[in-house]
Structure formats: C-alpha cells, structure tokens
Amino acid sequence: MSLPLHFAPRRLILAAPALLLGPAAAQVPLTPAQMEGPYFPRAIPADADADLMRVAGQPRMARGQPLRFEGVVRGRDGAPLAGVRVQIWQADADGIYLHPADPRLSARDTGFQGYGSTITDNAGRYAFRTIRPGLYPGRTPHIHMRTTSADGRLDLTTQAYFPESPQNERDFLLRNLSAERRALLMMTLSPTDDGQLARFDIVLG
After folding, report:
1. Which of 126, 155, 186, 204 has the smallest number of CB atoms closer than 10 Å to its CB?
2. pTM of the entire structure?
C-alpha cells in the first residue's frame, strides 16, 4: 500500500550555517550507524509494504499507539536522494519481534506487520504507518532502519529513538555515543488526531 507524502522536510538545524557558505562547505553531519540487532526478519513477510498497521488477510489492525514515521534521506551535501530503499523493523506493542529467536513469539500481535519497506520519492521523502514499539527487555523503544541508495553505494543501518523515553539514559547503545551523535538519532515528535507523527531525517555519506 502506498502512503501519501505530503510533508515538508525536517529542518537541518546543525547544517544551516554550512549551507550558507556555499557548496564546498555544505557538509551535513552523517547519521550514525548502529547495529542491525538480532531480529532482522529471517524471512521477509509476504506483506512488506509501508503500512505496518494492517496485514493482508488479517481481520484487524495492529494494537498500539499509531505512529506516522516519516522523513527525508539526503546526501552529505544536503541534496535529497531519490530512489533510496528504506526498510524498517521493530517490536509490536508488547515488545515482541517477528523473529523465531524471540522467546515470546507465540504471543506476538499477528495484526502487526513487524517489517516494512518503501522507496524515497523525487524529494527524498519516505513515510510509514506503524505503531509506537513496546518495551523490549533491556532496550529503550526504537525503530531499526536500513537505507540503501539506488546504485548500492550508500548503505546505512541505524536505529531511531524517541527523545522523551526515560529508558534512553540506560540504553547501552545510546550511552556509548556523544551527546552530538545521540541527538542525530532522535526523532522529532508531534501529536496527531489518533497518535503521533515522528520525523526522522537520514544523511548518507
């Protein structure tokens, strides 16, 4: 299922001064890489579109707080990148992954897709309809991402985080980052009628 892309890119505050200095100085901070983790789907589900809240053949939608997860993929010069494949995978509302190694798999929400994929448009934009992930033991809530440019040269695996989560300070991956790099992995959140809008721009280099 295709989702409408009708949003404006998040402002690249850290890059603004450099962009005023001309092309030679326009270097946007790269999005930090993070581990893929143990639960990238062993087999991509038959329904792997950008709407994770509805699974083909399932009579109900996913449980949990709806989340529209969107952003812009750019190169290091700040230019938007079209044709980039964006994949996400995450836990359901109860913190369970779509993966046979998750010990709680039998209790997983079958109305939640768990994985989705889309391609950026000509303005570098991507969008997913998903839910806010539940707590997985030992981690703070997060969404796994992989972005791959059309020519395959730029490939980044990372994780996007919710800035207000109290578990962030105890998360072992976030604790190992400087404050500046940690800030680059935080979503920008705003309320919607039925949930939240999460904005997360990605810079590949």
Report:
1. 155
2. 0.87
